[in-house]
Input
Amino acid sequence: MSRKGFLPLGQRMAEAGPPSWPHGLQWLEQVLEGLWAVCLVVLRRLGLVGRRLVVNLPFFWLALFFLVPFAIVLEISFAESDFGQPPYTPLFEWVEPSALAIRINLGNYTFLLQDSLYILAYLNSLKIAAISTVLCLLIGYPMAYAIARADPRWRPALLMLVILPFWTSFLIRVYAWIGILNSDGLLNNFLLWLGVIGEPLAIRHTEVAIYIGIVYSYLPFMVLPLYANLEKMDRSLLEAAADLGCRPIRAFLTVTLPLSLPGVLAGSLLVFIPAVGEFVIPELLGGSDNLMIGKVLWDEFFANRDWPVASAVAIALLLFLVIPIMLFQWAQGRQQERRT
Amino acid sequence: MADDALNQPPVSRPPGPAAKPARPNYREPWQDPNAQPYVQIVGVTKTFGPFVAVDDVTLDIYRGELFALLGGSGCGKTTLLRMLAGFEIPSQGRILIDGVDMSEIPPYDRPVNMMFQSYALFPHMTVQANVAFGLRQERLPAGDVRRRVAEALELVQLSAFAKRKPHQLSGGQRQRVALARSLVKRPKLLLLDEPLAALDAKLREQTQFELVNIQEQVGITFVMVTHDQDEAMSMATRIAVMDQGWIRQTGTPAEIYEYPQNRFVAGFIGQVNMFEGLVTDNQPDHVLIASEEADATLYVSHGAEVPAGTVVSVAVRPEKMAIAGQPPDDRHNAVQGIVQEIAYLGDHSVYLVELPTGRTVRVKAPNTTRMTEMPVTWEDHVWVTWRPDAGVVLTA
Output
């Protein structure tokens, strides 16, 4: 790309013809032009013009909205809890005009190991996320397979049905499940009416309710990558398998399934990672004894107002969960690259 | 056919009648009234909604043949092939292979293997695993599988590539893996869907002969679908020319080329000059046709089962015509016109001669003597002649 694409706004507008700003808003043009000029100067100072700007923009985005908050959380995790605003001691302090005191407190992390609550909550979160992921896979794979094999005229409609719940607020949908799962909720009333059960089932405030909530909420994240994978699979491969004497079920196991593993992996990660840190679903559907790390985090922040321990919980979650997964994905990508 | 094809210089040239050697009869089982066909297609029709893809096709294919289904796109040849494989079920009619009705038999139980146009190699398996796939389904002992896979890879000269994945191979190598994979199960019938279409021209020619050679070695009956007439002519024992779901003619390459049964086949295979005319005299040993289009009387030295007064076409291949500056002695089979175009192609030249009626006649003349000066040149007034046995009377 040449620098031509970054002509000042005014100049480009002059080339395009007379400015078409509504009467009385010409001042806005001046302001925008000024802002644009400032941006250009800043970017040029940073050595970012043309292609480099386009390439580096995502990195700036990540730096601004991921790394900076992460750094703040990391800083808080090394502080000590304090009464006041903000509720933690500063990490860096000017003791004298010339001396900078840095106080790093590792107590929050050792505390996580001392109190079994945190480790149990971590393990329980991993368990719930893992089981939910498997359930999503078991339900989502047949769904994705059916959509991918459906008549092409029906596919957009079927995909729409998968995406449709996103058009309502996540929170409202979880609230709706309270109405369904309550002891006097829709499900129990229906089963009582059918005569299948004699007295209401206790589903809400159990782990079962959490599984239902997570599987319901995250199913589209499993279905969509699986669909994308299965849909592009070459159908003649299955014909070739049949032609070589392979029955349909074996053909699925030896051809379709291995070829869809990247989709299975992508879908599983998309379900597993957010499910580990899930807060809303265990809070609304689960009971007080269903420990999940997201809930513990919330309680530390808002009930205990212990920001440093809460930050340590968050950082630990990141270290023990997200980083191994990122490394795994990176290795996968490398392998993929070597193969092609 | 296969042997001859190998001994011929590697040019895709339709064999003329003189080049057609006398073969022992067992090589031409379709000539033998007692021979039992190996594959019988009986009145097969396939419809997709209102569209008739294959229309009442009846065809016998004999053991050891390399049979070609030839036609343009949408003529139904691939649908017919897919019905042989079992991927499509005939709407009507029956298919028998080695005497067994295939109607109820799913693809995975048929003694048939197919080489797909896209090759359809399993991308997640090595060459070896791809070839072994079919044998594994039969639950053969591991030792047998290994031995037969090694043999098959040997046959297609890919032993050194056994551990590679399909994406690490060239197009030609992939094609050979696909062939090995479909041959290794020793099917009764091997189906090839446009086997050479994905190869570049040079490789295609070389592979044609390789395929025929391999077919000779393994002795499996091949049925091939192709849109390329050169491919069909140079490889096949017999060809079925298909159009709009039905077979227009079945025969050896020479029969199809020299004795087309209708205008479609005459026009589809090679190049042809066709003159419409009225039959004026019909004798057992010759037919006379008065053609306004050619402005001449055409003499064909074989009988045609048509009464006098019928409108017929006479087809004459360009290479069976001669071009001369002088009027010939025989008044039949001679048309006069003006040379419009000359294409000098080294070994032969192609002349386009415009007749007074506006028709253009294509003449292909071998350049048997070294030409320093063209004997015939642009705008010359010339005579185009052909022998009495050169023309074919077409009624359909």
Remarks:
- Chain B touches chain A at residues 85-87, 106-109, 112-114, 116, 118, 120-124, 133-134, 137-138, 165, 167, 181-182, 185 (CB under 8 Å).
